[in-house]
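Re: the 143-residue chain
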Amino acid sequence: MEKSYINPTQESGRAFIQRRITGTVVMLNLLRFKAIADYSETPELAPAEPISGEAAFQLYMEHTLPFLEQSGGSILFLGKGGPFLIGPMEETWDFVMLIQQNSVEDFLAFASNEAYLKGMGHRTAALADSRLLPVEANLLSHV
């Protein structure tokens, strides 16, 4: 079975902090959904009837958006994915999302908000695999 990546590790979190990104940070999200959402880890969040991973992710986004906006964050882009033009042809992503935060500190405050975390089970239920790449914004101005 292929390894999937759903949540950050302590090591990846530490590396993120040690980058010492100043100013705006944009999170590039690549998401692959499960055909049927798996709520076995959070049955209290499960809908009455089975739903798709994409539908579970929609529930996650509906729950998350107020907390994202409260932290000063915003959605820059949402889009349907597919196979790479440059990259492994066997690797496809269902959904691409760019989330902007004013700072790493704002992102960390958002990501540790207790009320936000109560809805994380929708994300976990939805995803078969994901990637999250923190991107330093506005580097082209230095070229």
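The chain has a mean pLDDT of 94.
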